[in-house]
UniProtKB/TrEMBL annotation:
InterPro entries: Pyridox_Oxase_N (IPR011576), Split_barrel_FMN-bd (IPR012349)
Gene3D superfamilies, per database record: Electron Transport, Fmn-binding Protein, Chain A (2.30.110.10)
Superkingdom to which the source organism belongs: Bacteria
Residue stretches making up the Pyridoxamine 5'-phosphate oxidase N-terminal domain: 10-136
Annotated protein name in UniProt: Pyridoxamine 5'-phosphate oxidase
Signal peptide: none
Spans traversing the lipid bilayer: none
SUPFAM superfamilies: FMN-binding split barrel (SSF50475)
Length: 192
């Protein structure tokens, strides 16, 4: 049976921190717009800032749908599900904001991620919960975690910040969403 919460209670906090992957959903306001659902991973790239706020690192390399949707309307849902241990699904429905490299809050937010910071970082997505819920997850299969993928870090780790900024500017999917909404503000400012 599902339950709703006003804050990220300790049991939910511990569950979220144990998960290796989470999913991000967003959508434009237009009824015929494309709903986006993205898997996120890389150990240490998600932080719970307080009992109603989470943040994750947003790296370049693929589309910027979530950023475009957040800039337009702020709606976002994060979801974690148990692939091992007792079944559970936790969702945070809320309002998100991309904090870009030229925002004065960016260095302080990034510092909290320690070694998880890496090449190709575009923004920190900060999500304030409006509704937190969990459900049973009885139908979620068991799956085993093997290791982190190193492809993204290896590919972008060879690029200087200037090369990454040029790469970002050259890809239309960083400039706008599939529906033409503005995404990453370009030119991407250098890292401070």
């Amino acid at each position: 049976m599902g339950k709703e919460y006003e804050r990220i209670e300790p049991r939910l906090w511990e569950f979220i921190e144990r998960q290796k992957v989470f999913f991000v959903a967003s959508a434009p306001l237009a009824g015929d717009g494309h709903v986006n659902l993205s898997p996120k991973g890389r150990q240490g790239t998600l932080r719970i800032l307080d009992d109603r706020t989470v943040a994750y690192l947003d790296f370049g390399g693929s589309h910027a749908e979530t950023i475009a949707h957040l800039r337009e309307n702020g709606r976002i849902t994060l979801m974690w599900c148990a692939f091992e241990g007792p079944p559970n699904i936790v969702r945070i429905h809320g309002r998100g904001e991309p904090v870009f490299r030229d925002d004065p809050r960016f260095p302080g937010l990034v510092a909290g991620f320690g070694e998880a910071d890496g090449p190709a970082l575009r923004a920190v997505i900060v999500v304030t919960a409006e509704l937190i819920s969990d459900t049973c997850g009885f139908a979620v299969p068991f799956m085993d975690y093997r290791a982190e993928r190193e492809l993204h870090a290896n590919h972008f780790g060879r690029k200087t910040d200037e090369e990454f900024r040029e790469y970002t500017a050259s890809k239309p999917y960083n400039n706008a969403s599939l529906d033409g909404l503005p995404a990453v503000p370009l030119p991407l400012p250098p890292r401070r």
